[in-house]
Amino acid sequence: MKRETKDNILMSILGITFFLNIIVMNLFPPTIEELVVVGYAILGIGALFFVLSVFTLRRKGTSNVVASGVYGIVRHPMYLGAMVMFLSHIFLGQNWIVAISTIVGIVCCYLIIRSGDQRNIEKFGDAYRRYMRSVPRMNFFVGLIRLARRRQPAPENISTSDGW
Questions:
Q1: 10-residue block means of pLDDT along the chain (164 residues)?
Q2: Do residues 25 and 134 touch, judged by C-beta distance below 8 A?
Q3: Of 70, 93, 77, which Cα lies nearest the Cα of 18?
Q4: Could you give the angle at the alpha carbon of 131 between the alpha carbons of 83 and 47, nearest 5°?
Q5: How far apart are CA 87 and CA 128, in angstroms?
Q6: Taking phi first (over 0 means left), then psi (-120 to 50 degrees means alpha), and beta for anything else, what does residue 125 get?
Q7: CA atoms of 122 and 104, how far apart (whole Å)
Q8: Is the pTM higher than 0.90?
Q9: I want to staple 42 with a disulfide (CB 3.0 to 4.6 A). Which of 56, 88, 95, 162 is the partner?
Q10: Do 50 and 83 form a contact (C-beta atoms < 8 A)?
């Protein structure tokens, strides 16, 4: 099966799981209010990733590898944001159907990300391979550490002898 067809199927499943979660969350309201608050906080974090990635792509375009902004931390911030927003559904829905649907949605996002890496290698070649080596796929914390290391100035050459 062609990658484009697989991606379309995954995106369709992703949409179905999203709408299924919304329907179930409306039919069966949550019972633990504290978890709802946690869910909204997680939803906000995911939405922030998503919005930052959209603004970065609009500003930088898609004709070159974008390695700045949130794309300097993780390679797929839009899908990472979607995965985090899906995770919030578990706290907002508090229902086993929502939990299973969320897992399916997150797996679909992950598979789309892997496919996206292959598509970008085909489109950008070695430039994307270098980007892949310097920026993690989804690990935000590793991405922050790598970004901080890239921004640190190189240490000056310090001689171990007195020079006398």
A1: 89 95 94 96 96 93 89 94 96 96 96 94 94 92 86 60 44
A2: no
A3: 93
A4: 25
A5: 29
A6: left
A7: 27
A8: no
A9: 88
A10: no
